[in-house]
Design a protein that fits this description.
This protein has 9 helices and no strands. It has 253 residues and is mainly alpha-helical.
């Protein structure tokens, strides 16, 4: 199978967690504490993946300038777009609590588009990383795929639960996440095709940019929900996720 197609399929696998999470959140509602615990664990896994799978690899390939520049640029771009979307109803897109989500400006209006754009903003950098990981050695970064899957699962779960409480139709919810899963596959495909043959420094800059965006996303959207739902246990659960991903990275390497 061509590597470009493999990249798209792995992106679809990670993006499918949104649909799986939405199904769980819709038909088997979980408590906010459980959702927050999953969010905390996924945040720990993602932090581990971007530390050892992205930043460390980018540093070895490109050096300080592309890594530092890309890392800050990724965080800056994410923050700017996230701020704009927050002003239009997507601030609490990962929250399952209706009262919290209702605090969004424009929450009384139809904010489906901001929610979708917010999910894309969260997921596209992750999917690009998955595709780009095949550029080195022809094998996908398994830890990165698992990390993205675990971060998407609570997003689909919590958002579906919240949108159900707000009266959204099943067609809207599942159609939204299915479409974003397909976009994730496309982003992973582009992550491979778009950067194949590029200098190592350029690929390193892309990896660092994605890492910066992912870290900003974790702090802005995942950590608040994780802490509010689990309180004093959020740190321990996140550390467990970090350790699990770290061990998997070392054992699979």
């Amino acid at each position: 199978m061509p590597l470009s197609l493999q990249a798209g399929l792995w992106g679809l696998v990670s993006g499918s967690a949104l649909v799986v999470g939405a199904l769980i959140g819709w038909f088997l509602p979980l408590s906010r504490r459980v959702i927050a615990a999953i969010m905390a664990f996924g945040a720990g896994v993602l932090i581990s993946a971007l530390s050892f799978e992205l930043m460390d690899e980018a540093w070895r390939s490109g050096g300080v300038v592309p890594v530092a520049g890309g890392f800050l640029a990724g965080a800056g771009v994410f923050t700017a777009f996230n701020y704009l979307l927050s002003m239009h109803g997507a601030r609490h897109r990962k929250r399952s609590d209706r009262r919290t989500r209702a605090q969004d400006r424009g929450a009384e209006a139809d904010n489906g588009v901001p929610l979708a754009l917010g999910a894309l903003l969260d997921g596209v950098p992750e999917s690009i990383v998955i595709g780009a990981s095949l550029l080195k050695g022809g094998a996908v970064g398994l830890v990165a795929v698992i990390a993205v899957f675990l971060s998407n699962l609570p997003e689909g779960l919590s958002s579906a639960a919240g949108m159900k409480k707000e009266g959204r139709s099943p067609g809207f919810v599942f159609g939204l996440w299915a479409a974003i899963a397909l976009v994730s596959a496309l982003a992973a495909w582009l992550g491979y095709v778009g950067f194949a043959g590029m200098p190592a420094g350029a690929v390193s800059a892309v990896q660092a940019t994605a890492a910066g965006a992912i870290l900003a996303m974790i702090v802005d959207t995942m950590v608040p929900e994780a802490f509010e739902g689990t309180h004093d246990f959020a740190g321990l659960i996140a550390v467990s996720g970090f350790l699990a991903a770290f061990m998997l990275s070392k054992l699979s390497g």
